[in-house]
Design a protein that fits this description.
The chain is an alpha/beta fold. It folds into four domains: about 270 residues, Alpha-Beta Barrel (TIM Barrel); about 30 residues, no CATH class; about 50 residues; about 110 residues, 2-Layer Sandwich (Double Stranded RNA Binding Domain), CATH 3.30.160. The strands form three sheets. Strands 1-2-3-4-5-6-7-8 form an eight-stranded parallel barrel, surrounded by eight helices. Strands 9-10-11 form a three-stranded antiparallel sheet, with helices on one face. Strands 12-13-14 form a three-stranded antiparallel sheet. Strand 3, helix 3 and strand 4 form a beta-alpha-beta unit. Helix 1 packs antiparallel against helix 11, helix 2 crosses helix 3 and helix 6 packs across helix 7. The radius of gyration is 25 Å and the shape is globular.
Length: about 550
Amino acid sequence: MKAGARIQFFDTTLRDGEQAPGYSMNLEEKVRMALQLETLGVDVIEAGFAIASPGDAEAIAAIARAVRQSAIASLSRALEKDIDASARALREAVHPRIHTFIATSDLHLQYKLKLSREQALDQARRMVAYARNQCAEVEFSAEDAFRSDLDFLCRVAEAVIDAGATVVNLPDTVGYATPDEFHAMVHAVHTRVPNMHRAILAVHCHNDLGLGVANSLAGIRAGARQVECTIGGIGERAGNAALEEIVMTLRTRADRFGCTYNIRTEEIFRTARLLASITGVKIAPNKPIVGQNAFAHESGIHQHGMLANAQTYEIMTPESVGVLKTSLVLGKHSGQHAFRKRLAELGYQPTDEELRDLFEAFKVLADRKKTIEDRDLVALMESARAAVADPKKMWVLDSFVVNSGNRMTSTACVTLRRGKKKHQEVATGAGPVNASLRAIEKIIRHPFILEEYQLQAVTEGREALGEVLVKISDETGFYRGRGVSTDVIEASILSCLVAVNHMLDENTAATALGAGTTVRELEAGAPAADDETASHGQGK
């Protein structure tokens, strides 16, 4: 491996990652995620699969308009109609990339595509040339590359480079390879293809055997200069190689890799948290780099070593990945200037209007809590951004009163505002949260079902800020919401209202449906329902 080699990071969270059940995102959420990936320093953002649906094409186009630094890629099969759809979606991108693929393994050619090797080779060559006529950057992926005949794989790579491919990607589509085998394949393509120097060699590793990151790193050592991955390793089946694990390995083991990259590692934790916030899927506590236990030390021996020298048990600092450790030295008497300054230190640049609303929420929180930590501020900021909508159309919490106990039926009286008008309803339910959501349903006159409910403490102690994530559904789709408060019931109502406003915004033409209650009762230990995620029939 050449010392000082620059590694490009190709993030496919919004395409391959979103194909995982439970990780679907709406357009606004995809744009938010793309902008954070740009802040993270990702070289290429694969925004979607344009031909898959009008929604995918619209999302790619919106991301292409919003992102200015990172390249934006759209996936397409090696078909003219797919490539045309990608080109249309990428029209406004500053740095567009068409990413086209065809399988090269005999297994896929025989049973899926019904093509001979020569037919697949010809189609790959023609479609890369077709794409290159529409876009300066064209990436070609040899689906199921690892299980392909190596001589044939090299022929395909040479042909597509001659046809205009600027990147050649070698996926381990089903996560079958071991690191030594994957290294051998990548090294063979890197050294045997005579025109390989005219293109970037890339790898795309799935995690079916838990080897996605190890194989990606083996590919880098073998000559790959682009690595394809996702935040948190999300993706179909067992997922993809995790971006944060790859880049922190390159950083922590610079002695072994000696690579350079554009990733701002201090943005890693914020990026992972945003993904969890948008999707409602919590980060596993033992997840490397970004899990809550990644920098936790419980055993006495470890704690003693940490106190003596952090390097005894930490190979990287929490600060290097953006994990927040400091406390906010602000209180209810602090001014807006100090508040804005601290938000900037945390990586947020709110508008003047956002700042006014955030500062008001901060003051309310400061009255309830003695100590406010950075994590409280992050939760407030992200909750506020999740709630963005047209103020004239959105429902806003005015007040609520709940009566509940173990020997009585819970009753909630909820008052909501929309514009200048207040609306109030009373409802009963199986617990205070359920009663509150039933009251909301009666006010908005649009039935919905509570699919998922998650409650977690942002900070520790009796005065902890509670974070509630909900997913609701109606006949048209699923909608997520997020709310924070020191009061669990208030956080539940706020999260529900975020989801409700998203739902109603996408159902503006729907007729109000009366007040029949269909909110699912909140039962302790009830299993969460997953989104029905459409498969695009592509598993690179």
